[in-house]
Amino acid sequence: MSGTWGECLELSIFGESHGPGVGIVVNGLPAGIELDLDLINMEMGRRMPGKTSLATPRQEKDKYELVGGYFNSKTTGSPLCCMIWNQDQRSLDYEDIKGIVRPSHADFTARWKHAGFNDYRGGGHFSGRLTAPLVFAGAIAKQLLAKKGIVIGSHILSIGEVQEEPFDLRDVDFELLKELTEKEFPVIIEDKAGEMKDRILEAKKDEDSVGGVIEVGVANLPIGLGSPFFDSAESKIAHLLFSIPAVKGVEFGAGFHITKMKGSEANDGFILEDNQVRTTSNNNGGILGGITNGMPLVFRAAFKPTPSIGKVQRTVDVDKMEEVEISIKGRHDPCIVPRAVPVVEAAAALALLDLMIEKDGTGWMS
Predict the structure, then answer these.
(1) Where are the beta strands (DSSP E) in 280-345?
(2) Any idea which fold 4-360 has?
(3) pLDDT tens-digit map of 65-92
(4) What 8-state DSSP symbol labels residue 294?
(5) Number of helices (H) and strands (E), helices first, in the chain?
(6) CA distance 253 to 256
(7) Where are the domains of the chain?
(8) The model's pTM
(9) What pLDDT does 49 receive?
(10) Which of 214, 240, 201, 209 is closest to 339 using CA atoms?
């Protein structure tokens, strides 16, 4: 199993949903960085479960413990290790169904991949619980990118069939990105928040779930990030995005809609604006040839509906090799999208920081 990612900035993630805890090791940070603990706490709080009726009632405060690489309020240059201890597991919820593979979960594939030795409780290592340490590392990446004036923000573009207005691809507002980060339910049009919440609660009442799309904007990126072919800016970002449980689609700029345009409509023409080279549109989402071009980076991540639902579904008990029906009990999000917003931002921040280190080294960090 691959638990490690990154070239210049190396991440190693570990733990299981119902094990003692989850955590991450971040390698590649220089010595002497004072971490913004308030920023880290805020980001962890955005992802934390149990806050509203829209989320799982599992009570995890996501308090983290730095167990290496941090001394006298500064990074030491050695690998930074963060532990997040699990506090509210209910493993008995899974004991009676350990042989029953839950539809659209990793139960079936993980069991075959690891010869039945995988931790099946709460999805084990395949659980969304593993995104907590990703948010921790992403908060550090955000802090460092801010030193270069780079800001990452996002909003919930859609929940089910309820959709709000997308970002202006060419002029992603710097202040809007920061404002969205401070919202508990980040949308641009406030009226849409109520519609989206109602859609989630409706699904919850029906013992069902819904998915949605998160749109991310990044302002003030420098020109020149990305190393095609295999480490293009899109490749780096998409690699981490597709590591997030439940992500089933990623698109940049105009995305799939660009296929409906002619070349004359899709092409981003070049102009001079305040003595800087910019483009007349931004259908490519700030990336050309796998390299950032100085325009806002805009991408979207599509999340499938939470697979744990109370409705009766068909499946198989692989211990007995017989078809059965299952109605999943326990504590689950009727929609994972609101809590996934800081996770998607974290993935973007980590990918971009890796590319920044490749381009400029680490001297600018401390």
Answers:
(1) 287-288, 291-292, 297-303, 313-317, 322-326
(2) Chorismate synthase, AroC fold (3.60.150)
(3) 999 999 999 999 999 999 999 885 555 5
(4) S
(5) 9, 18
(6) 9
(7) 4-360
(8) 0.94
(9) 72
(10) 214
